[in-house]
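tl;dr need the bound structure. longer version: we got a ligand (zinc ion) that a collaborator sent over and nobodys looked at where it sits. i said id run it. heres the input, straight from their email, havent touched it
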Amino acid sequence: MSFQCKRCDKEMMTVFYEGVAIQLCMSCKGIYLSKKKLEIIKDSREIDIPEDTPIPRNGPEVRRHCPKCDISMKKIKHGNIRTTMIDFCEDCSGLWLDKGELASIQFSYEIAEKNQFRNQLRRA
Ligand SMILES: [Zn+2]
Ligand SMILES: [Zn+2]
Protein backbone atom coordinates (compact mmCIF):
# COMPACT_ATOMS: atom_id res chain seq x y z
CA MET A 1 0.00 0.00 0.00
CA SER A 2 1.39 3.39 -0.87
CA PHE A 3 0.72 6.68 0.86
CA GLN A 4 0.76 10.01 -0.84
CA CYS A 5 1.67 13.25 0.93
CA LYS A 6 -1.24 15.53 0.06
CA ARG A 7 0.84 18.54 0.91
CA CYS A 8 3.62 17.87 -1.60
CA ASP A 9 1.88 15.41 -3.87
CA LYS A 10 4.76 12.99 -3.37
CA GLU A 11 4.86 9.36 -2.43
CA MET A 12 5.75 8.76 1.21
CA MET A 13 8.52 6.43 2.34
CA THR A 14 8.38 3.77 5.00
CA VAL A 15 11.02 4.51 7.63
CA PHE A 16 11.67 3.13 11.09
CA TYR A 17 11.47 5.38 14.11
CA GLU A 18 12.34 3.70 17.41
CA GLY A 19 11.67 0.38 15.69
CA VAL A 20 8.22 1.43 14.49
CA ALA A 21 7.41 1.60 10.78
CA ILE A 22 6.01 5.03 9.90
CA GLN A 23 5.38 6.91 6.68
CA LEU A 24 7.65 9.86 6.01
CA CYS A 25 7.48 12.49 3.30
CA MET A 26 11.05 13.24 2.26
CA SER A 27 10.02 16.63 0.99
CA CYS A 28 8.21 18.27 3.95
CA LYS A 29 9.28 15.73 6.63
CA GLY A 30 5.66 15.20 7.51
CA ILE A 31 4.83 11.89 9.21
CA TYR A 32 1.78 9.68 8.97
CA LEU A 33 1.24 6.96 11.55
CA SER A 34 -1.53 5.21 13.43
CA LYS A 35 -2.55 6.19 16.95
CA LYS A 36 -1.33 2.84 18.20
CA LYS A 37 2.12 3.38 16.75
CA LEU A 38 2.39 6.76 18.42
CA GLU A 39 1.66 5.06 21.76
CA ILE A 40 4.54 2.64 21.15
CA ILE A 41 6.93 5.44 20.22
CA LYS A 42 5.85 7.45 23.27
CA ASP A 43 6.80 4.59 25.57
CA SER A 44 10.12 3.98 23.87
CA ARG A 45 13.26 5.64 25.21
CA GLU A 46 15.71 4.65 22.54
CA ILE A 47 16.22 8.15 21.26
CA ASP A 48 17.24 10.83 23.73
CA ILE A 49 15.44 14.01 22.91
CA PRO A 50 17.59 17.03 23.77
CA GLU A 51 16.13 19.30 26.43
CA ASP A 52 16.26 22.33 24.18
CA THR A 53 14.08 20.77 21.50
CA PRO A 54 12.13 23.70 20.13
CA ILE A 55 8.39 23.57 19.86
CA PRO A 56 7.72 23.57 16.14
CA ARG A 57 6.20 26.74 14.86
CA ASN A 58 4.40 26.13 11.66
CA GLY A 59 2.56 29.41 11.58
CA PRO A 60 -1.18 29.20 11.29
CA GLU A 61 -2.32 25.60 11.46
CA VAL A 62 -3.26 24.37 8.03
CA ARG A 63 -5.74 21.58 7.56
CA ARG A 64 -4.11 18.40 6.31
CA HIS A 65 -5.45 15.64 4.18
CA CYS A 66 -5.08 12.01 5.23
CA PRO A 67 -2.43 10.31 3.03
CA LYS A 68 -4.46 7.12 3.24
CA CYS A 69 -8.07 8.23 2.84
CA ASP A 70 -7.61 11.58 1.10
CA ILE A 71 -10.11 13.30 3.38
CA SER A 72 -9.72 16.41 5.50
CA MET A 73 -8.26 15.66 8.92
CA LYS A 74 -9.39 17.04 12.25
CA LYS A 75 -7.17 19.18 14.52
CA ILE A 76 -6.68 17.65 17.95
CA LYS A 77 -4.57 18.69 20.91
CA HIS A 78 -1.92 16.31 22.05
CA GLY A 79 0.04 16.27 25.29
CA ASN A 80 -0.57 18.04 28.57
CA ILE A 81 2.65 19.92 29.32
CA ARG A 82 3.66 21.12 25.89
CA THR A 83 0.57 20.89 23.81
CA THR A 84 1.02 20.08 20.18
CA MET A 85 -1.74 20.46 17.63
CA ILE A 86 -1.81 17.40 15.44
CA ASP A 87 -4.10 16.16 12.70
CA PHE A 88 -6.35 13.18 13.17
CA CYS A 89 -8.25 11.20 10.56
CA GLU A 90 -11.61 10.02 11.86
CA ASP A 91 -11.80 7.46 9.12
CA CYS A 92 -8.64 5.42 9.69
CA SER A 93 -7.58 6.81 13.11
CA GLY A 94 -4.34 7.87 11.48
CA LEU A 95 -2.32 10.86 12.60
CA TRP A 96 -0.41 13.45 10.64
CA LEU A 97 2.56 15.09 12.32
CA ASP A 98 4.31 18.06 10.78
CA LYS A 99 8.08 18.31 10.89
CA GLY A 100 9.34 18.31 14.49
CA GLU A 101 6.01 17.44 16.08
CA LEU A 102 6.92 13.84 16.83
CA ALA A 103 10.06 14.87 18.75
CA SER A 104 8.03 17.50 20.57
CA ILE A 105 5.41 14.96 21.67
CA GLN A 106 8.03 12.50 22.83
CA PHE A 107 9.86 15.24 24.68
CA SER A 108 6.78 16.36 26.61
CA TYR A 109 6.26 12.81 27.88
CA GLU A 110 9.87 12.53 28.99
CA ILE A 111 9.59 15.81 30.89
CA ALA A 112 6.44 14.57 32.60
CA GLU A 113 8.27 11.43 33.70
CA LYS A 114 11.26 13.37 35.00
CA ASN A 115 9.01 15.66 37.03
CA GLN A 116 7.28 12.65 38.53
CA PHE A 117 10.66 11.19 39.47
CA ARG A 118 11.74 14.45 41.12
CA ASN A 119 8.55 14.58 43.16
CA GLN A 120 9.16 11.05 44.34
CA LEU A 121 12.66 12.00 45.48
CA ARG A 122 11.32 14.98 47.39
CA ARG A 123 8.82 12.82 49.22
CA ALA A 124 11.43 10.20 50.20
ZN1 LIG B 1 5.14 16.31 2.02
ZN1 LIG C 1 -7.44 8.31 6.99
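gonna send this back to them w/ a short note. Helices lie at 35-43, 101-123.
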